[in-house]
From TrEMBL:
SUPFAM superfamilies: Immunoglobulin (SSF48726). It is a single-pass type I membrane protein. It comes from Odocoileus virginianus. The gene is AGER. It comes from the Eukaryota. This is Advanced glycosylation end product-specific receptor. The lineage of its organism: Eukaryota, Metazoa, Chordata, Craniata, Vertebrata.
Length: 413
């Protein structure tokens, strides 16, 4: 029992010692004063202590002591040994250490990890939409937060629930900028949504900013409520006259023109799609590929430069007009002509090469066969000639010697 109590007592002492001498995380608001205590330092001078700083203002560890002069009005050691930073800045983020020796000779170390923050003002939605069209991408607005540090995050909400970008019905385009002098961040978040037909007629959107430091509740914008148009239904929603000018031209049939004609283009070429939807006021034009809306700003012309395999597909355009709702054009197909002809030419060249090689081999074989036949004919001609010569030689050898004997007999006495 006594041994166990002793062990627990030592563990308590070690925990307390770690709490005193271990690193402490300090958060300070930008522009406010910050005081860091040097534990173990005598309350009255003279004191034996030393502060060491490793921050954004120092290339390496910088040393401050009570006997030293204030460091460019950035920090100074107080009479009780504490370190004072009159106005904390972003460059003061870093590590602070103090080593103090008491009059009894005991040495104590204090370590601090300092981070700074700045809470921006409430975010706001700029350039909000006045209404939305079902079935096509719509820009709801841009949420802006200025003057925060660290950057933090922006989130969009629909009817109080967080919207998650999925690349289809909901997409968010974010941008983060940092001021070159103050170092504070400005965030932009643009929301695009594609309302479903038959969905809510009056959705409510809002945006919130969540600080990166310190932990605190999010800041919310004022909500905006928009009207969703699907098609003109008598008696529902605003009247036509509220959205159309005095000089109104109804929306005619939507035509989609493609250049080059037919939509077939070589690899790396350019395709221009033009959506012709004459009406007054001009309708909004959105683009659809393979049945899915393209996350592009509205416009009557879609340019596809340097066409590649990923650009192939079926395209159409949707024109939305307050008096008629959305009208979709006929679809056109974009295809590559270079991807099919290329391998065909290579196959033709290979076939011609093979045929040429076979022809050469056949020619060589024919020459060899002709040469051999000629040699055989020569040999056949030489055999009869040799036989005739041998027969003549044999005939001469076998002739009788009677004439010579007769001459010898007549020439006697």
């Amino acid at each position: 029992m006594a041994a166990g109590a002793a062990v627990r007592a030592w563990m308590l002492v070690l925990c307390l010692w770690g709490a005193v001498t271990g690193d402490q995380n300090i958060t300070a608001r930008i522009g406010k004063p910050l005081v860091l205590n040097c534990k173990g330092a005598p309350k009255k001078p003279p004191q034996q202590l030393e502060w060491k700083l490793n921050t954004g203002r120092t290339e390496a560890w910088k040393v401050l002591s009570p006997q030293g002069d204030p460091w460019d009005s950035v920090a100074r050691v107080l009479p009780n040994g504490s370190l004072l930073l009159p106005a904390v800045g972003i460059q003061d983020e870093g590590t602070f250490r103090c080593r103090a020796t008491s009059r009894s000779g005991k040495e104590t170390k204090s370590n601090y990890r300092v981070r700074v923050y700045q809470i921006p003002g409430k975010p706001e939605i700029v350039d909000p939409a006045s209404e939305l069209m079902a079935g096509v991408p719509n820009k709801v607005g841009t949420c802006v937060s200025e003057g925060g540090y660290p950057a933090g995050t922006l989130s969009w909400h629909l009817d109080g629930k967080t919207l998650t970008p999925d690349g289809k019905g909901v997409s968010v385009k974010e941008e983060t900028k940092r001021h070159p002098e103050t170092g504070l961040f400005t965030l932009h978040s643009e929301l695009m949504v594609t309302p479903t037909r038959g969905g809510a007629l009056h959705p409510t959107f809002s945006c919130s900013f969540t600080p990166g430091l310190p932990r605190r509740r999010a800041l919310h914008t004022a909500p905006i409520q928009l009207r969703v148009w699907s098609e003109h239904r008598g008696g529902e929603g605003p009247s036509v006259g509220e959205h159309m000018s005095e000089y109104t031209v109804p929306l005619e049939e939507v035509q989609l023109v493609v250049e080059p004609e037919g939509g077939a283009v070589a690899l790396g070429g350019t395709v221009t799609l033009t959506c012709e939807a004459p009406a007054q006021p001009p309708p909004q034009i959105h683009w659809i590929k393979d049945g899915r809306p393209l996350p592009l700003p509205p416009g009557p012309v879609l340019l596809l430069p340097e066409v590649g395999p990923e650009d192939q597909g079926t395209y159409s355009c949707v024109a939305t007009h307050p008096s008629h709702g959305p009208q979709e054009s006929g679809a056109v197909s974009i295809s590559l002509i270079g991807s099919v002809e290329g391998p065909g030419l290579e196959t033709l060249a290979l076939s011609l090469g093979i045929l040429g090689g076979l022809g050469t081999v056949a020619l060589l074989i024919g020459v060899i066969m002709w040469h051999r036949r000629r040699q055989r004919r020569g040999q056949e001609r030489k055999v009869p000639e040799n036989q005739e010569e041998e027969e003549e030689e044999r005939a001469e050898l076998n002739q009788p010697e009677e004439p010579e004997a007769a001459e010898s007999s007549t020439g006697g006495p």
